[in-house]
Amino acid sequence: MSRAALILVSGGVIAAIIFFLNGDTPAPAPQLELVEKYEATPAPIGVGIPGSTSTYKPSYYGGYDNYYDDDYRVIDRDEAIDEHWDEIKEYVDGSTEVEAYSYDSGNYYSLDADISNGEVDQVYFPNGGYLHSLGAEVDSGGSASGYDQEYRDWEFEVDDSLIDDAVEEWAQDNDYELDY
Questions:
Q1: What is the pTM for the complete model shown?
Q2: What average pLDDT does the structure give for the chain?
């Protein structure tokens, strides 16, 4: 008679079952005896057992940088922007300084601006003047272009910190951990 062990894993529960088989001849269904039962917590993604295959899961979009399971998702800043910019741009909000270029005059200006839902809404000049009705949607690189109320063409560069804040807020709202 020989001894054999069977390890079952289901829903985080590991059960080791030891049963006996009769030599080389077919035997009736073995009587199973539960020897020990262990409760186990699954290892985090990326942590493997030495000598086993890795638990590191690739994403659908870009290799191993965006790996996750049902409860744990990690993504880096650039990958988040590349894959989810249409969602992230809605988080680009706030008052910030922008670099503005007027195609009409050929001049650059550092100006305060209000940005809402990924669009430059209003830009303020130090003398009290302002630009509005721009329709300038911020792209993933922080650039935006549009026309002011007098149909003059403008280009804007938004500070990276506003983009970074939007990525962080989006990640938190969508259960991602950012990998820096």
A1: 0.60
A2: 77
